[in-house]
């Protein structure tokens, strides 16, 4: 598979030739380029936080990154096995110059990535990312002399600090959660969710916890993207255990979805909707999600007197729009919750705490809560791309074919069909075109997606 270079870092498969995969040489090159930029921006602050998910390749990539940063004169604070939001928050707690998260998020086990953070613990901007790519392409970096090599420190307290911040967040009610005596099943997908989620639940007073796929070995028991077709084990176990709730996270614990007490899916798209609904009842304000997310968020926002704004897909774009409209809650329909006064990053742990508080306060079950929202049906599909495919020509062809419908080209191609819509865009993380469609009828959403997928295939 090709090496994917984006504004937020680099991602690729392990094994193969340099330049075509995430090889050791590419890891060193991009780490050195990132360190160079940090030193140019602030030569005094030489601290960088790193952490990794539970992938098979994680320790190997970690050693290369640590060695490279040290060779650049950077002091490394290594969280070891961690989560993406934990690293983000640790950058701020430690007043570091930046951070690197070693995770390919929802990608399968053969993938890994370097996700780059700025001193605010947020993903670097497009402009900064372009500079990193430029430095790496030119091999324009210089290693430190032996007397100026960076220091290495291991940190085992970062997750505890993260959990403490979540438990103490003003809208989280630990006492109300504890009183419910929740029984919860967690699918940890053989990664660091097996460490972080049970620790959070215990801190919230939940004692009855069943963890599936709890070995942190990176040998994912199923496809790690928390989609319905991958969560049958969790759904069945929630029903079998007569649990109150099921929780699924992705390998780096920044995406979140729930399973109701009857074994049915709450709906990944509705994770943000429910959490936002709770937050907006206590803090009036605006919301943001990317334009591939359900319009149900707009519904609950307007019901509470706020204004909903869409953004281009990608956490950086969501965060920028949230700042621009002063949103009190936002995120992405893939189960990514961003609570800005905690930190500007997707965080499954704060999402879990707020959702459980909402259930506890309302005395509703997860199924009862889900039934309070309008049913929109989303069809999520993708088409894999081979090298050399001209996506721009494909989109121009489709744009011309549907020219009589409202079209948004801010991020790929979004076409409106009365109350329905379809969004086509290339992925930042995989060589694919994503096709998302939504309607109040499931068959209509599927048919829209199928129609557009056929349009794309005709162009290949």
TrEMBL record:
Cofactors, names only: Mg(2+)
Pfam (any one): PGM_PMM_II
Record keyword Phosphoprotein present: yes
InterPro entries xref list: A-D-PHexomutase_a/b/a-I, A-D-PHexomutase_a/b/a-I/II/III, A-D-PHexomutase_a/b/a-II, A-D-PHexomutase_a/b/a-III, A-D-PHexomutase_C, A-D-PHexomutase_C_sf, A-D-PHexomutase_CS, Alpha-D-phosphohexomutase_SF
Domain of life: Bacteria
GO BP annotation list: carbohydrate metabolic process; peptidoglycan biosynthetic process; UDP-N-acetylglucosamine biosynthetic process
Enzyme class, spelled out: isomerase
UniProt keyword list: Isomerase, Magnesium, Metal-binding, Phosphoprotein
GO cellular component: a single term: cytosol
EC numbers on record: 5.4.2.10
Residue stretches in coiled coil: none
Segments forming domain Alpha-D-phosphohexomutase alpha/beta/alpha: 8-137, 162-263, 270-375
Family: Belongs to the phosphohexose mutase family.
Listed name of the protein: Phosphoglucosamine mutase
